[in-house]
Amino acid sequence: MVQERTLPTFNAATVKITKEEGLRLYEDMTLGRFFEDKCAEMYYRGKMFGFVHLYNGQEAVSTGIIQGAMRPGEDYVSSTYRDHVHALSAGVPAREVMAELFGKATGCSKGRGGSMHMFSAEHRLLGGYAFVAEGIPVASGAAFQSKYRREVLGDESADQVTACFFGDGAANNGQFFETLNMAALWKLPIIFVVENNKWAIGMAHERATSQPEIYKKASVFNMVGVEVDGMDVLAVREVAQAAVARARAGEGPTLIEALTYRFRGHSLADPDELRSKDEKDFWFARDPIKKLAAYLLEHDLATEAELKAIEKKIQGVVEDAVKFAESSPEPDSSELYRFIFAEDE
Question: How does it assemble (predicted)?
Fold first, then answer.
């Protein structure tokens, strides 16, 4: 069987979206795809080292949540080891993300983090995390401080929402259950986003959990749980907007399960021999970028020329990022012990 679960239905005809919004979503998704393709090229050319986990195929989730429903640069984003595209959607410049992948001092983590540890205080990106489920309690801490500042300290501007991304494998981890319980009890302004791409490294999701429908686990915590087609950016945007609105209104967290698929192996070191051709073909046919392009054209929100212009623009952005990374300096050895502890301003 190619697909054990039917993708949720979504009536795109009822979507209210402007041309400007549609093109912005398309540009962000295209940036994610082109950037990751370039990462693969650079990795195989020996420009990047270590483990590199790409996001191809899952762009509708990052774009739909961050660009479609949140305030990038104001709200908080917590990622995973598949974090490049979350960083880009959150507003971290492509130059800084690419430089970090090259281990350069101009990277968003000063060359210390690499692929799995993107961080940007300026853009409120709370980090990528190598350990499964590691970012879940960190994200909840960020949500707690927003609530505390607003309700205890009286800071009316503290209405930030935190988006916490993690994979299906993390939903079997103890931190998932403990943190969701606390978030529900305290009504934290957070949305938990499960990017269910069906595989936790080489373990099929259906074989690893007694309840494959992760969104239903929200009911245990008296929390809203929503299942969404993670290959449809407009569907993700709709459920995310509702979740963010609830969080800002003080109504507590939401668990969103986005059914999606990674088009490449677990990492660039993975030969990807465990997944069947039929399964891959089923999901490749649901490419989220092609789906959005078709919608924009069908509803006269874009022309072929406009979409091509965006692709050309993004290609230039990615090429510029590579040149910037290649020409940037390595971290100086004299700063080996810097950034271990907090520094005075």
Answer: Heterodimer of an alpha and a beta chain.
The pLDDT assigned to 345 comes to 64
User: CB-side exposure of 306: number of CA atoms within 13 Å?
Assistant: 15
Identify whether the C-beta of residue 75 lies closer than 8 Å to the C-beta of residue 193.
no
Q: What is the pTM of this model?
A: 0.95
Q: Flag whether pLDDT at 340 surpasses 90.
A: no
Quick check: 318 pLDDT over 80?
A: yes
The whole-number pLDDT of residue 342 equals: 84
* pLDDT, mean of residues 332-336: 90
Say what the pLDDT of residue 2 is: 39
For 249, left (φ over 0), alpha (ψ -120 to 50), or beta? Answer: alpha
What is the set of domains in the chain, with CATH numbers? 17-286+314-325 (3.40.50.970)
> For the chain, first and last CA: distance in Å?
58
**Stretch 39-61: mean pLDDT, rounded?**
96
Question: Which pLDDT does position 1 carry in this prediction?
Answer: 37
Closest by CA to 126, choosing from 66, 176, 171, 178, is 66
Query: In whole angstroms, how far apart are CA 257 and each of 62, 70, 171?
Result: 13, 17, 10
CB 76 within 8 A of CB 142: yes
- The length of the chain in residues reads 345
- Could you give the CA distance from residue 185 to residue 253 in angstroms, rounded to a whole number? 10
